[in-house]
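Archive transcription. Copying these from loose printouts into the bound notebook so they stop getting lost. Printout 1 of 2:
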Amino acid sequence: MPLLTGHRGLHPGHHQEDPRSPLLPRPTETPALKGLYYRRVRKVGAWDRSPALDLKREMLVNVGGRRYVLPWSTLDEFPRSRLSRLKLCRSHAEIRQLCDDYDEDNQEFFFDRSPSAFAVIVSFLAAGKLVLLRETCALSFREELSYWGIEEAGLEPCCLRRLLRRLEERAEQRREEALQRAEAGRPAVLASRWGRCMNRLREMVENPQSGLPGKVFACLSVLFVATTAVSLCVSTMPDLRAEEDKGECSPKCYSIFVVETVCVAWFSLEFCLRFVQARDKCQFFQGPLNIIDMLAISPYYVSLAVSEEPPEHGERPGGGGGGSYLEKVGLVLRVLRALRILYVMRLARHSLGLQTLGLTVRRCTREFGLLLLFLGVAVTLFAPLVYVAENEAGRVLEFTSIPASYWWAIISMTTVGYGDMVPRSVPGQVVALSSILSGILIMAFPATSIFHTFSHSYLELKKEQERLQARLRRLQNCSAASERPLLDDVDDQVPEGPASPGAYA
C-alpha cells in the first residue's frame, strides 16, 4: 500500500537535519509488524473506483458505502457464510439472490447492510476474533451475524454472555408486551359503557401518570401507608403496652384504633377496586403484591372476628376485657397486628426503586443461591473449628456446642459482630480471623454481578416508564385529533372569514 506524505511535505523515510542530533542517540527503526488482517484483507477508499484486483484470488465488496477487498482463501475457512456462497454462483441471478446489487464491469458486490457491523465481521474473517462493540446493539448485531452466515458461537466469551443476557431480557419484554396486547385487545368489552368505566378505573389504579385521578389515588395510598406505619410504632409505646396488659384502653388507645380502622378501610377499598378492574381474577390472586395486601389486611378482620363483643370506649379494641381473653388470643392478636408492617411493601406499586429491587432479586436468584451455598459451606467449616479451638483451650464460655457456634460463624462471616460470643484463646482468634476474611471474599464474589443487574434493571424500568408515558401522550393526542374533524365541519359552514388553523391540520 502506498504511504501517505508525512508532516511538512516530507516523506516518512526522510529526516530533517537537526544540529542537536549528534548529541542524542539515533532511535533504532523497527520494521512494521503487519498482522494477519493487513496481509489478507484491505479496505479500499471510495475514490479508488477501479482497484487492481486478481478476480481469481480476490473479491470487491461494498457494504454501506465502504469497500473491502477480501481474498477468496480467507472465505474458504467459512464455507457457510454469505460471501463464501458467492464463489459458488454460476449466474447473475444467483448472485443477486445473495447480494443487493452487482456491478459486472468492476466485479463489485453491493450490500445494503450496516458498515460498522460488517467491519467487525471482516476482522473476524481475517483474524478469527469476533467481538461485540459496546456502542453496537446486541440484537441488531445478532441479526447481522445471521445475515452474513456467521455463527454466534464464534463470539468471545464475554461478548457471548452479554448477547445471551440481552436476549433473555428481550424475551421477557416480549412476554410482557404480549400479555399487555392480550389484555388490551378486547374490542367487545371496550365498546360498552362498562368497559370504558373499567378502562378508566384501571388507568387510575395501575397508572399514576394517567392523569389527576391516578395521581390523587397514588398519593392517598402512600399517605395511608405512612399513617399505618406511624400508628404501629406509636402503639408499641410503654404506656400503651401497660394498658394492653391490663386489658384497658385509654382515649389515646381508642384513637389509634380509629386510625387503624380508617386505614384498613381504605386498603380494603383499594384491594376491591384492583380486584374489580382485573381481567383475570385467578391471576390477580397470584400477584406478589396482591398476596401481601391480603396478608396485611386479614389480621384486622381476624382480630374483630375473634372478639367476644365490639370494642367500646374504655375497653381494649380487638382485645376484649378481662384476663381470660388475653390468655386465649392475646398473643395471637399481637402477632397478627404486627403483620401490619407489610403495608410498607405496598410502596412498591409507586416506587421505581422498590420495583427495581424486586426485579433484581428475581433475576439474580442464581447469584443469591451461590451466595447462600458459599456461606453454608464456610459456616459448616468454621463453626466446628472454633468450637474445638475454644474447647481445647479450656475456655468454653459461650461456645457450648457446634450448633451454638453456627450463630457466631454467621455473624462473623457477614461482618456484623454482635459481640455476644467472642473467642478467648489464640487458636480461636486465628479461626475468627480466617472466618472474617473468608466472609469478606465470599460476600464480594456475587456483589458485582448483583450491582450490574440492579443498575441495568433500573435503567430498563425507567425507559419502560418513559415509553408508557409517551404512549399515553400519543393516545391523548389521537383522542384530541378524533374530535378535531367535528370542529372542522363547523368551520366549513362559515361562509366568510379566514380559515381556521384546524382546517390545515
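Printout 2 of 2:
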Amino acid sequence: MWTTDPSLVVLAFLVGLAAGVTLMSMLAVLRSDQDMPHSEHTRL
C-alpha cells in the first residue's frame, strides 16, 4: 500500500503534525477552562 514517494511522506507527516498540534491546543484550552474561572480565562 505504502509508496516511498517523498512528497507523500512529507505531506502525511505535516498533516499528522497539524492534527497533533490542534488536538493538544484543544485539550489545553479545555483543561485551562476547567481549572480557571471563565472571567479569568477571558481576561488573559
